[in-house]
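In the design runs reported in the main text, the only information available to the sequence generator was the tokenized backbone. The following block is the verbatim input for one such run; it is reproduced so that readers can re-run the procedure and compare outputs position by position.
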């Protein structure tokens, strides 16, 4: 039961890392695809590619547990990522090959295979954990990456081209939004937004903790007051009992004194009677031999 609750809390903390410690906005990993994607379709393609690369590489690294020096591990991780890159490129070509050609995304897809989100994170986290934990970390990182790139690429497409997923919305456009440099600017704005969300969440959590602490304090004070009142009532009852006992003792004292005075003369008379009886018995004992001698003399005569 405790292990289950611990696992749930750990998973909950992992999911809050999507906006609180987003791997793109707080760690700077996966920035190249985010900056390169200027349309929603490009964002979807990069999300699919990073999903295949990240989850597969993390799982394989956690399974192999390579214990080589770092200068040997990194090339091995790059090789593993390159193998899964073949699978990823097949998937994105099956999705929409024309977008890759129209927006010149192939170079950025090559770079994505060696991105720090894949290689560095695999070495720092996946290598030291179980396969299940590594896969979960990969899923969380991919979700955080997808949220950022899809949101930013949608905004850039709407403002830069007046379209969303190739569908025309309006003719008004801001040409500079589709440029690469706006990707940096937009990523900075999203980082500020996500930090604000995290700060707001921290404020709510702290507020709830303060309210809970206040409730616990009031509850504890009520319990202490109740215990004090109970103790005070017990002391009061004990004091009343002692007072009643004292009053009863004072009331019985004259009666005992009077009874003692009556008992003293009776005891004196009994003492006198007993002394008289003992005296009579003493005389009889002394005269007994004389009487016996007299009797013998009388018989001789």
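Verbatim output:
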């Amino acid at each position: 039961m405790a292990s289950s609750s611990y696992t749930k809390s750990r998973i909950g903390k992992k999911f809050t890392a999507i906006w609180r410690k987003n791997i793109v906005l707080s760690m700077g990993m996966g920035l190249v695809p985010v900056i390169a994607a200027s349309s929603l379709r490009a964002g979807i393609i990069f999300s699919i590619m990073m999903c295949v690369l990240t989850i597969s590489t993390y799982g394989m690294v956690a399974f192999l547990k390579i214990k080589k020096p770092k200068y040997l591990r990194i090339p091995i991780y790059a090789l593993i990522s390159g193998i899964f890159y073949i699978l990823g490129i097949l998937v994105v070509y099956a999705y929409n090959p024309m977008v890759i050609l129209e927006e010149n995304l192939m170079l950025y897809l090559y770079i994505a295979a060696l991105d720090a989100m894949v290689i560095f994170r695999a070495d720092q986290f996946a290598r030291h954990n179980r396969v299940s934990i590594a896969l979960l970390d990969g899923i969380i990182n991919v979700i955080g990456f997808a949220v950022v790139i899809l949101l930013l690429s949608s905004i850039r497409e709407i403002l830069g081209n007046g379209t969303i997923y190739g569908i025309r919305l309006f003719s008004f456009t801001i040409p500079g939004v589709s440029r690469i440099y706006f990707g940096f600017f937009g990523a900075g704005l999203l980082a500020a937004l996500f930090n604000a969300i995290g700060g707001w969440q921290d404020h709510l959590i702290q507020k709830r903790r303060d309210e809970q602490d206040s409730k616990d304090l009031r509850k504890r004070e009520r319990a202490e007051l109740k215990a004090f009142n109970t103790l005070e009532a017990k002391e009061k009852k004990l004091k009343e009992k002692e007072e009643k006992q004292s009053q009863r003792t004072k009331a019985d004292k004259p009666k005992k004194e009077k009874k003692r005075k009556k008992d003293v003369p009776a005891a004196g008379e009994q003492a006198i009677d007993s002394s008289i009886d003992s005296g009579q018995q003493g005389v009889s004992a002394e005269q007994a031999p004389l009487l016996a001698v007299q009797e013998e003399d009388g018989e001789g005569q």
